[in-house]
Automatic annotation (TrEMBL):
Its EC number is 2.3.1.266. It catalyses: N-terminal L-alanyl-[ribosomal protein bS18] + acetyl-CoA = N-terminal N(alpha)-acetyl-L-alanyl-[ribosomal protein bS18] + CoA + H(+). It comes from the Bacteria. This is [Ribosomal protein bS18]-alanine N-acetyltransferase. SUPFAM superfamilies: Acyl-CoA N-acyltransferases (Nat). One of its GO terms (cellular component) is cytoplasm. Signal peptide: none annotated. CDD domains: NAT_SF. It is an enzyme of class 2 (transferase). Keywords: Acyltransferase, Cytoplasm, Transferase.
Amino acid sequence: MTVTLSPLQWWDIPTAAAMDREIFGPDAWSEDFFWTQAASPTVFLIAAHTEDGLAGFAGLSVSGKEAEILTIATHPNIRGRGAGRLLLESLLDTARSRGVEAVYLDVRSDNTAALGLYEAFGFAVLNTRPGYYTGADALVMRASLLGL
């Protein structure tokens, strides 16, 4: 399986929204929200494609020296094969190229795979947002890009 990354295109949005609903259920982005994010000059959306089509996506919002990872999602069929890592690396490269010094994100407290990935990239838990997600707290994480 080969994963290729590229900017998320308008024709990917309906599939991305459907995948988001499948993965995140009631916490998913709506298709309208994808369109809003895609139209923002400070948001960078990345698509991961395989031979079978859209397999994942990620989003980053940049504001000065800080950025927020808005989402990283990979289709259940390709989890554990490095697509999430590629998407995260791409977001961090995008942040660095824009002079970002610190990156933040929220992650479900019960998403152990994502927590392990983020910790491997230097993210540390700053705070907890109780009940932020349906059925789980959010952990607020931060990583410094200075010196990396």
